Amino acid sequence: MEIQLGLRENWKQFWLLVLINGLVGGMIGLERTLLPEIAAKEFHLTSTSVMLSFIIVFGLFKAITNYFTGVFANRFGRKKLLVFGWLIGLPIPFILMYADSWNWIIVANVLLGINQGLTWSSTVTMKIDLVGEKERGFAMGLNEFAGYAAVGLVALITSVIAGHYGLRPYPFIIGIVLAVMGTVLSFFLVKDTSAYVKKEMLQHKNVPLLKNVFAETSWSHKNLGTVTQAGLINNLNDAMVWGIMPVLLVQKNFSIEQIGIITAIYPVVWGFGQLITGKLADIYCKKDLLFLGMLMQGIAIIMILFSHHIIHYIIISTVLGIGTAIVYPTFLSGIAEDTNPQQRAQSLGIFRFWRDLGYVLGALITGVFTDLISIGFSIVLIGILTVISSVIIQYRMYCRSGARRVLIP
User: Fold this and answer.
1) Of 186, 187, 190, 156, which Cα lies nearest the Cα of 174?
2) Helix (H, G, I), strand (E, B) or coil at 132
3) Whole-model pTM?
4) CA–CA separation, 49 vs 365, rounded Å?
5) Tell me, what's the pLDDT at 408?
6) pLDDT value at position 2?
C-alpha cells in the first residue's frame, strides 16, 4: 500500500488516535478534583507541600518518560511504546480505589506519570507523522482537544459521583473502563507510523538537522528554546491550579459539586478551544499566538486573588482555558516546524520533558510558599512568572516568512 501524508488520507488511524488520546486524558481527569479532597479528609494531610506530592511525582516521572519516549520512538516504534504505556496504566484505578495510605497514592501517580508520558507522547508523534507539514497545528488541536476535554469531563463526572456516593471507591470505576479500552484499541487497531516519517523526509529536506538536539530544543535555538520555556511555565501554573484551586475553594466553603464545576471548566474550555486554535497555528505567526495565550493565563491567575463569588471563578477558569487552548497546540506544531522529521520525535520528547517538569516546579513553589507565607502569595507569584514568560516570547521568538501576524498588521 502506498503511503500518503495527510489527515484525509489517513483519517481512520487519525481519528482512532484522537479517541485513544481522549482515554489518556480521562486517566488524569480521575484525579483532577478528588485527590486534594482525599488528602485532606481521608489521610488528614495539613501541609500543602505534602498534599501536592502526588503532582510532584506525577510530573517528574511523566517528564522523564517523555524524554525516553522521544529517544526510543524511532528505535522501537511508536505503537509498542503506546501499548506498554497502557499496560502500565491498568493498575492505577484499583490503587486509587483501595489505597490505605498516602504512599499508595504516590505509587499510583508514579505509574500515571509513566502511563501519560508513553501514551500521550506516542499519540502526539503519530498524528504529526500521519498528517504532514500543512495540517500539524490542526492535528495537534484535535489531539489536545480530545485529551483535555476528557480531563475536564471525567473530572466533572467523578465530582458528581463523589457528591452522591463519597470520594471512594465509586468515582474511580470509570478509570478501569478507560484503561481497558485504551489497551485493547492500541494493541489490536493502531498501526505504527514510522514509515510515514521516512516518506516525509524524502519530500521535505528544507529543515536542517540540529547539531545538539537537547541543547537547542532546551534553550539555545531561539524559537525552540522559547517554546520550551513557555511550555514549562504553562505546566507550572497548571500544577498550581490543579493542586491549589480545590483547596482554596474548600476554604471559601464551596461544595464538592461547585468545586467540580469550576475545576472542570478550565480543561473543558482548554480542550474544546483547541478545535479552533489548532488551525490558527497553521495560519498565524506562532510567536504572536504564544505571547497572547501566556499573557491571558498570567492575568487570569493573578485575578484569582481578587475573586470571591462562583461567577468570578467560572470567568477566570474560562479565560485561563482560552489562553491555554491558544498555546498548547502551538507549542507542539512550533517544535515540529523547526525540527527535521528525523529528529522530530526526540525534540518533542525533550520539549515535553521540560514542559512536564513544570508540574514538579509548580507544585514545589506552590507548596513551599503556601506553607511559608500564604495561598495568595503563591498564586500571584505563579501569575507573575507566567506574564514574564509572555515577555520572553515577545522579545526572543521570530515569525517564519509567510506567517500572518496576529498582533501586528
Assistant:
1) 156
2) coil
3) 0.91
4) 9
5) 60
6) 75
Q: Please count the residues of the chain.
A: 409
Cell of 29: 481527569
The residue extents of the domains of the chain are 11-396
User: What CATH number was assigned to the domain covering residues 11-396?
Assistant: 1.20.1250.20
The pLDDT value recorded for residue 254 is 93
Q: How far is CA 400 from CA 207, 223, 347, 404, in A?
A: 12, 10, 19, 9
Q: DSSP state, 306?
A: G
CA 228, 105, 154, 244 torsion-angle sign: negative
Say how many C-beta atoms besides its own lie within 10 A of residue 272's C-beta: 15
Phi, psi of 404 (to 5 degrees): -75, 145
Q: How far apart are CA 137 and CA 17, in angstroms?
A: 16
Cell reading at 203: 519530500
| CA–CA dist 223, 86 (Å, integer) | 33
Cβ neighbours of 76 (radius 10 Å)? 14
Q: What is the DSSP string of 29-92?
A: HHHHTHHHHHHHHTS----HHHHTHHHHHHHHHHHHHHHHHHHHHHHH-HHHHHHHHHHHHTTH
Query: What is the rounded distance in angstroms from the CA atom of residue 160 to the CA atom of residue 199?
Result: 47
Inter-helix orientation angle 11-32/173-188, to 10°: 160
Identify the pLDDT of residue 205. 58
Quick one: how far is CA 158 from the chain centroid?
19
Q: What's 365's DSSP letter?
A: H
With a cut of 70, which residues of the chain have pLDDT below it?
1, 203-206, 407-409
Q: What Å distances lie between residue 67 and 217, 233, 350, CA to CA? A: 12, 18, 5
Please, how many CA atoms are within 13 Å of residue 392, restricted to the half-sphere of its CB?
A: 20
- Respond yes or no on whether the N-terminal peptide bond of residue 169 is cis (omega within 30° of 0): yes
**pLDDT averaged over the chain?**
93
Residue 162 CA: distances (Å) to CA of 78, 243, 263, 273: 36, 18, 14, 27
Task: Specify the amino acid at residue 354.
Answer: W
Supply 361's cell numbers.
Answer: 516546579
**Amino acid code (one letter) for 369:** F
Cell (9 digits) for 178? 478507560
Cα distance between residue 315 and residue 321, in whole Å:
10
- pLDDT score at 383: 98
Distance of alpha carbon 199 from the chain centroid: 29
| CA 356 – CA 312 distance, rounded (Å) | 28
